[in-house]
Amino acid sequence: MKIMVVGGAGFIGSHVVDAYIQEGHEVIVVDNFSTGKRENVNKEARVYELDIWSDTEQLESVFRAEQPEIVNHHAVQKSVPESVKNPVFDAKINILGTLHLLDLSVKYNVQKFIFISSGGALTGEADHIPTTEEMDPQLISPYAISKYTIEKYLHFYHITFGLNYTVLRYANVYGPRQAGGGECGVTPIFMNNLLNDQPSVLFAYSDMPKGTTRDYVYVEDVATANVLSISKGDHSIINIGTGKEVFTEDLYCLAQSIIGKNIPLIREKERTGDVKRSALDCSRAEKLLGWKANTPLNEGLVKTFISMRTASGQQTQ
Fold first, then answer.
1. Taking a C-beta distance cutoff of 8 angstroms, is the pair 171, 279 a contact?
2. What InterPro entries is this protein classified in (predicted)?
3. The domain at 174-215+244-279+294-311 falls in which architecture?
4. Which of 6, 54, 281, 282 could form a disulfide with 75 if both were Cys (CB 3.0 to 4.6 A apart)?
5. Of 20, 48, 108, 143, which is the active-site residue?
6. pLDDT by residue (tens digit) across 26-75?
C-alpha cells in the first residue's frame, strides 16, 4: 500500500516508516523538520518538506500527486508545558493542522487515517491503574484537550464522510533516535547525563519519594502496532503500552546498572501539573490488533544505550 507518514522524520515516526517499508509498503514522508532529523528518514521513502498548518497548498499538491491509501499522523506539538504557555500555537498544530489532513484525506479518498493520541495525558490522575480506554479523560492541559478533540473529530469524519480510522494512545515511548527533552525524554536525558558523568534531577512527591510512575514501551513494539493498524482496529481507540508502572528512580537505577556508573540523583519537589501515576491497560490492543509489547524494559534500555553510545562515537562493550 502507499502510506503517507506525517512526522516521519521524528523519533517514533521514523521507526514507523522503517516498519512499513520492511513490510513492503510504499512510504511518503511529510515533515517540516522542526524537530525531526533527515538522518532518521529511511532512504527508500520519498520526502516532502512542508508544514501541515501553514503550507496548505503544497500539502494538497502532495495528496494530489501521491494519492496515498493510508495517512499515518505522527506530527505534533508534543510538549505539555509548551501547550500551557501557548495554547493557541498548540491548537494550530494539533487541531487545525490535523483538520487540514482530514479534509484532504476525504477529498482524495484515503482508505484509513491512523492518528497518534496520548494515553498518559488523557488519563491524568486516574483512580484505577492501569487505565482503560473507557475512562473519562482528564483534560488538564491544552495538549490533552487537542488530542481528545481530534479523537472526536475522527468520529465525526467517519459518520459524516465514511473515513475509516484507528486511534493509538501511546504510553511513554522510548528507544533509539529519541532526543532528550520534556517528560517523554527522561530516558535519553538520564543516559546522556550518565554517559557524560553528570547528575540527573528526580522530581518527587512527599508520599512518592521515588518519583512519578510511567508506562515505558519500546519504540519498535510501537511501530509494530502501527503496521497492524493498517488492516485492524477500525473505528477504535486503542492503548499502546505495557500496563506496568515504573518509578522514575527505578528507571534511573536500571540505566545506571546498564551503563556501569553510579551518580546520585539530585532530588527536587514535584513539578506543577505532573501526573503522579500512569500506566495503560492494553488488553484491547491484544484483542483488536493481536498486539502486545514484547520488549522487556531492561532489553529495550540496553538497545537504546548501544544506539546512543554508537551515535556519540564511543565504543560499546
1. yes
2. Epimerase_deHydtase, NAD(P)-bd_dom_sf
3. Alpha-Beta Complex (3.90)
4. 6
5. 143
6. 999 999 998 889 999 999 999 999 999 889 999 999 999 999 999 999 98
